[in-house]
Design brief:
With about 70 residues, the protein is mainly beta. The protein has one helix and five strands. The strands form two sheets. Strands 3-5-4 form a three-stranded antiparallel beta sheet, with no helix packed on it. Strand 4 and strand 5 form a beta hairpin.
């Protein structure tokens, strides 16, 4: 079962859009590829195109499992 949708902004034009994490495990996201050691498990890449007709630039979202609080200390 996929996680619920979240509201994000295009990193290029700040237009709002909805994105859906690929699953409940990969709930953290970044528009830049996360550095190794900042997440647990694998990274899933999602490629979208901005829906703003004046932008239409590609958007890459990197979904990853967040580290547990106690693993970061």
């Amino acid at each position: 079962m996929a996680a619920s949708r979240i509201n994000l902004e295009c990193p290029n034009c700040q237009s709002k859009f909805e994105a859906r994490p690929p699953d409940r495990l990969h709930s953290a996201y970044s528009f830049e590829k996360p550095l190794k050691g900042k997440f647990t498990g694998g990274v899933i890449t999602q490629n979208l195109v901005c829906r703003n007709p004046k932008c239409r630039k590609p958007i890459t979202i990197y979904w990853y499992p967040p580290m547990d609080f106690f693993n970061r200390i």
